[in-house]
Amino acid sequence: MTDVSKVYSNGSVALSDVSVNIAEGDFVFVVGPSGAGKSTFIKLIFREEWPTNGQIIVNGRNITELSLREVPFLRRGLGIVFQDYRLLPNKSVHENVAFAMEVIEAPRREIQKRVNHVLELVGLRDLARNLPSELSGGEQQRVAIARAIVNKPRVVIADEPTGNLDPDTSWEIMKIFEKINEDGTTLVMATHDKTVVDAMKRRVIAIEKGRIVRDEAIGVYGYEG
Amino acid sequence: MAMKVRTVEYFIREAIVSLKRNGLMSIASVSTVALSMLILGLFLVMVLNLNHMASVLESQVQISVYLQDNLSDREMREVGTKITKLPGVTMVTFVGKEEAMTRFKQRLGEQQGLLSALGDTNPLPNGFEVKVDKPEMVKPTAQAIAQFKGIETTKFGQEVVEHLFSLTKMVRWFGVLLILFLALAALFIISNTIRITVFARRKEIGIMKYVGATDWFIRWPFLIEGVILGLGGALIAVFLLAEAYGMLTSKVYESLAFLPLIPRSPFIANISGLLLVLGAMIGALGSTISLRRFMKV
Q1: How far is A224 from chain B (nearest CA, A)?
Q2: CATH number 2.130.10.10 given to B62-156
Q3: Are B206 and A88 an interchain contact pair (Cβ–Cβ within 8 Å)?
Q4: Where are the CATH 3.30.70.3040 domain residues in chain B?
C-alpha cells in the first residue's frame, strides 16, 4: 500500500496517506480504537472499498486498476473471515465450505477432497453434517475459516474474527490462524483483542485517526481496555 | 468462458429451489403473465382476423369499366382482352347495355316505374366488371384501364376500400398500444418477483461475491427463474388461446360460414410461438432489471 487515502462520500476521512508493506508469509495485526480506520484498511484489500488516492498491490496486482469484472478473480486469491461468520443458515457445515469452491466451478472430486481436508484442519470433521445453528460461536467461526482457506488463498484477511468469542475460544481460533500462517499463507487480522495480540508476539500495525502511528515487528496491543 | 454441464445443472437447480421457496409469489407472477399473454394473444387473433376479413372484402371489390358508346363489338372484345392481360387481374366479365339495365331495374325494385319516362332508350353504357387478386391492385389497375382507348370511365368501391383501410389501421394502432401496456405490466410483475428472490438471498449473494464468484455466475439462476416464470405464463396463455380459437372457429363454420376467419392451423401455432418467445424475453428482462439494482454488493 502506497500513500493510500480514503475519504468517504460524506466527507469523513477514514485513512490518510497510509503506506505499508506486508510481505508474503507475514502475520500482521492491525489494531486501533473503533473508528480509527481498521475496517476500511481491511476492506480496501479485497476491493470492497476504493481508495480515494494511492495504490494497493495485492498478490502482485495493482488492484486500484482492477476492472469490476476482475474483482472476483482478485477475491479468489484471498480468504476473508468476518466477525459475524457469515455462514449460510440453511446449508450444512460441509456445504458451506464446499460452496466457496462450487462458485468458482472447481471439479466435484477436488471439492470433496479439499473440504474434508480443511474441515480436518479446523477440527470440525465430525460436525460436517450439522447446520450452523447447531454449532457454538467458535465452531461457526472455524467453519468460516475453513471456507476462507478452502480455495488455497495466498492471503487470509480477518476482520475482528474473535470479536464475538470468549477468550478460550479466541485462543483456539488463533491457533488455527497460526497453523495456516505456518503453511505459508499471509495473514492480516484487524482486531481490538488485547490479550490475543499481546500473546502472539507478531507484527502490529496501529492505526489512529486514519494514520499509522506504530508498526513494530513484534508488537503489543498498546492500548488500555 | 465455456460453461460446465455441472454448473448449468447448478443454475437450474437453484432456480427451481427458489421458485418453490416463494411459491405464492411465483404463482402470482405466472398468473399475471398468463393473463397478460392471453389478452395479448386474443388481441393479436382479433387484429389479424380483422385484417384478414378486410383483405378478403377488399379483394372482392371490383372495378367497373364503362365503354364509350360508339365501339364496335370487335373493339369491345379487344379492350376485354387487353384488360385480361393486365397483371393481377383474375376475372373480366362483360356487362352489356341490356344486362346493365336489368340489374338497374332490380336494384330500383318497386320504383321501376321511374324508368318508363325513358321510353325505349337505354342510356346505360356497355362495360366490364374486373376483379383483381390483391386489394392493393384495385386502384392501379383501375387507373391503367382508364388509359385504354375506347374507355369512357372506370369506377371502383373507392370509399369502401378506404374505410376498411382506415379501420384496420386504427385497430392495429390500438392493438400495438394495448400490447405494449400489457407487456410492461408482465415485465413489472416478473421483475418484482425476482426482486423479492434476490432480496431474500442477498446474504448468499454477498458471500458468493466474497469468495470470488463472478457476477454472471450469480446472475444465471435468477435469469433462469425469470425465464421459467415468463415461459410458464405464456404456456398457460397459449393453451387457453388454442382451445378458445378452436371452439370459435368450429362454431363459426357451423352457423356463420360467410365470416372469413383465419384457419386454426398454422395460425395459432405461429401466435403461440410468438407468445412463448415474448414470455421468455419478458422473464429474462424482468430479472435483469431487478439484478441491476441488487447486484452491487
Answers
A1: 33
A2: no
A3: no
A4: 62-156
Q: Name every residue whose Cβ is closer than 8 Å to that of residue A46 and which is 6 or more positions away in sequence.
A: A74, A75, A78, A80, A157, B210
pLDDT at B2: 53
Domain residue limits, chain A: 25-43+72-216
- Whether ipTM > 0.85 holds is no
- CA dist B276 and B35 (Å) reads 13
Least confident of B101-110, B123-132, B173-182: B101-110
Whether residues A88 and B207 touch (CB distance < 8 A) is answered with yes
Nearest CA of chain B to the CA of A52: how many Å? Answer: 19
Task: Match 471439492 to its residue by C-alpha cell.
Answer: A111
Beta carbon pairs, A and B, within 8 Å: 49
Supply the pTM of this predicted model.
0.66
SS3 call for B204: helix
Cell of residue A143, nine digits = 467453519
Alpha-carbon gap: B289 to the closest alpha carbon of chain A (Å): 19
Query: B5-21 vs B158-200: helix axis angle to the nearest 10?
Result: 90
The CATH superfamily holding the domain A25-43+72-216 is P-loop containing nucleotide triphosphate hydrolases (3.40.50.300)
Long-range contacts of A101-104 (CB under 8 A, 24+ apart): A101/A150, A101/A151, A102/B10, A103/B208, A103/B211, A103/B212, A103/B213, A103/B217, A104/A76, A104/A151, A104/B211, A104/B212, A104/B213
CA-nearest of B185, B189, B218, B188 to B15 is B218
Q: What is the pLDDT of residue A182?
A: 92
Quick one: cell of A57? 498491490
Say if CB A192 and CB A33 are below 8 A apart: yes
The residue to which cell 362483360 is assigned: B94
